[in-house]
Amino acid sequence: MTPETEDLVRSATRWAAVPFVPEVTLLTAAEPFVLWDRTALDAPPFWAFPWAGGQGLARFVLDHPETVAGRTVLDVASGSGLVAIAAAKAGARTVLAGDIDDNALAAIALNAAANAATAVQPRRMDLAAGDPADVSDGGPDVVLAADVFYQRDLAAMALRFLRAARRGGAEVLAADPGRAFVPRASLTALATYQVPVLAVLEDAPVKEVTVYRLN
Length: 215
What we know:
This protein is an alpha/beta fold. The protein has 7 helices and 9 strands; from the N terminus they run αββααβαβαβαβαβββ. Strands 5-4-3-6-7-9-8 form a 7-stranded mixed sheet, sandwiched between helices. Helix 1 packs across helix 5 (102-114) and helix 3 runs parallel beside helix 4. The chain is globular, with a radius of gyration of 16 Å. The termini are far apart.
């Protein structure tokens, strides 16, 4: 985290409890498009909001701590760090929170510190080039992925990465609010939630989120 990224994250957000996961408080932006202009990046500021899939997966992990307790966890495309923080609160031994956006890494560090999630370690990671076996010594025990199936190319790239993690022995859990490119044939549904979302981000006030295990 640099002074510049920390300043951007702090100046563009305020602390707010996550609607479906009130145990976690995140730095949250009020208006995505103004912030997007400030970042001058191709991708939206995914780190500035609690997205539907992330809320559902964080809820699942907190309600089923045995999923991660005492285990090494990798949260891919971590964004705000919500799912990583939930894993830490559920007792994970270490949680690598991977993201390609330096602003996200700053947000993860700030959010983790505010939630006393000392097990969370932000890590720059590119799904296109990453190998889950290289992320931590011996590879993670559990890989978590939320909201990664919203665009065709990203969904295919994410699925390749997650399948590699599964072949390496990791348990892989993913969550999504029914977007177009969810690879349902490769997944087994574990739970479904009705998740309240920020109206500025979605087309409805509540989204149905399914948590899956990768077969």
